[in-house]
Amino acid sequence: MLTAGWGGVRLAAGARAEAANAAPSIRDPAADEARDRYIAFFEGRVQSDPYSAEDLGLLSSLFLQRARETGDHEDVVRAEATARRSLALRTAHNARASAVLAASLLEQHRFGEALDVARRLVQSNPESAAFRAMLGEIQLELGQYAAADTTFGSLESSRAHLDVAPRLARWAELSGKTTQARQLLYAARDRALLHYGLAPEQRAWFHLRVGDLEFRHGELDRAEKSLRAGLAVFPADYRLLSAMARLEGARGRWKEAIEHAEQVLAILPDPATLALTSELYAASGDSARAREYAGAVEVSLSAAEGSFHRADGLFLLDHGRRVPEVLAQAEKDLRSRRDIYGYDLLAWALHKQGRHAEAAVAMRGALRTGSRDPLLLYHAGMIERALGHSERAREYLEDALDANPHFSLTQAPLARAALDSVRGGWLPRWLRAG
Q: pLDDT value at position 26?
């Protein structure tokens, strides 16, 4: 998802400017120019005929596509506004504009509004598997897992659909069914590569989804193969570049990781990439640059519109920064969005405040779907260790490191050290079995 609200932020100590100067341009000027000419063409048509719902719907979808290619939050806002103009003219037979409206709201993390739009879209188009899949995705984001299970259960016969398979895979992964998620994503990626009507950004996205899954579960070689294949399709994809930075960091290739991260910052100076760059510099031994980029994260979050995202909150907690503020934000977020990652953020914030018993209660909410996300398992292990429950801590920490020994640049070493303290060291499961 796009990170909203960072446009115009002046980063601490000129970190963004340095990144932009250091990173070579990876965008294709000809492709960008062709896309922008297409947008300008439809802007001209809309200016000539402001009552064409169809042209407005097309223009809204083009804004959303450009936002996904460039990370420009303003294009998400333009997509929403243009879709609303289209729907104000005509709601009947205008599913394109409704779908863009729901997607643009989803990109802005306005999940409640997106849910309302998606429900109406499904009611008007009950035969559309793609619209039901979008509804299921929003239900997952809100933590409405029983409703999502019903929605996705109705899509089993459409599991080969490119709009359906990745969302089914996400629900499978959240439910701890990693093998099923992997099968769905690989099959969807292979079908996408044969679908020549897809834009390069869309084909690259399927490679990204496979790479993300493999990385989360410790399969670094598979992840790298998929991410590099995605970059071959769309070299300027900031999401793939960010994933490559994390992968190279997990391998200890600090120079390559930092280069990828700075390429992302030249495109999109978001706090998540600033945080990653800070951690990469720290791991490489450059503590001064690490502090500089950590300061840039603080500046970005202070200047951001609205609340910060969960990844930003976890970075702050991991580094002991603004803990009461993150806790307050997590509590507020859970009032409307009760998904497992919201409970995880709350649990980690409570743990960082020394409220370990309350953290354990919140952590049960984070683990309730059976997810094998190593970060969740690590948090659960550290909370149990703080409570003095050594056996439970050992189980969770072993599971986290077995799932992915490289799950976090900063937290995986802490997990190994914590495991040393409760069981005398960590060995991979295959070695213990031998």
A: 59
Length of the chain, in residues: 434
Q: Which residues does 200 contact at the CB level (< 8 Å), separation at least 6? A: 31, 233, 234
Q: Which ranges in 285-309 belong to alpha helices (H)?
A: 287-303
The CA distance from 420 to 314, in Å, is 24
- Alpha-carbon distance 47 to 395, whole Å? 63
Q: Within a 10 A sphere around the Cβ of 266, how many other Cβ atoms? A: 22
Domain 159-235: which topology?
A: 1.25.40
Q: CA 417, CA 304: separation in Å to the nearest integer?
A: 35
User: Which pLDDT belongs to residue 305?
Assistant: 55
Residue-wise pLDDT for 311-340, tens only, equals: 999 999 999 999 999 999 999 999 999 999
Q: How many CA atoms lie within 13 A of 432 on its CB side?
A: 9
Burial of 24 (0-12, 13-18, 19+ CB in 10 A): exposed
Token pair, residue 413, equals: 């070493």
Query: What pTM value is reported for the model?
Result: 0.87
CA distance 134 to 339: 17
Mean per-residue pLDDT over the chain, rounded: 90
Q: Which two tokens stand for residue 148?
A: 């999502």
pLDDT at residue number 334: 95
All residue ranges of the chain with pLDDT < 70 are 1-28, 303-307, 424-434
Q: What is the phi/psi pair of residue 158, to 5°? A: -110, 20
Question: What type of residue is 416?
Answer: R
- The span from the CA of 277 to the CA of 293, in Å, is 7
- The distance of Cα 382 from the centroid of its chain, to the nearest Å, equals 24
**Dihedral sign from CA coordinates of 330, 331, 335, 341:** positive
Between CA 233 and CA 288 the distance in angstroms is 36
| Those residues with Cβ within 8 angstroms of residue 174's Cβ, 6 or more apart along the chain or in another chain | 140, 145, 340, 369, 371
